[in-house]
Amino acid sequence: MTISQPTSIFAPETVAAINRAYDKAIGIVGAAAEQTDLRLAVADHVMCLARKGENDERRLCRLAVLAVLGRFPDDAQDGADLHVNDGR
Predict the structure, then answer these.
(1) Within a domain: residue 4?
(2) Rounded to the nearest 10 degrees, how much is the dihedral formed by the CA atoms of 85, 62, 54, 32?
(3) Does any domain span residue 57?
(4) Inside any domain, residue 32
(5) CB neighbours of 39 closer than 8 A, spacing ≥ 6?
(6) How many domains does the chain have?
(7) Is the pLDDT of residue 51 over 80?
(8) pLDDT digits (tens, 9 = 90+) for 15-30
(9) Rg for the chain (alpha carbons), in Å?
(10) Which of 33, 50, 62, 67 qualifies as a cystine partner to 79, CB 3.0-4.6 A?
């Protein structure tokens, strides 16, 4: 049987940004390894944003954190100077 390679929907640099954004967002929300629901929620938001064309790692991180927590923690280091209109 021949297995064809699936076509990639993301450029390699976008995949790298997604991975970094996810890791940073997990660090900000404080999701422990056993908190799979929270980790999946962060991953879902990052991937949804990436599928819509977002490829900036800081925005991916910040918007995923906003979606999961409803706010971006004041003491968070990543993207602290990035202002995002979250519709509120």
Answers:
(1) no
(2) -150
(3) yes
(4) yes
(5) 26, 31
(6) 1
(7) yes
(8) 999 999 999 999 999 8
(9) 14
(10) 62
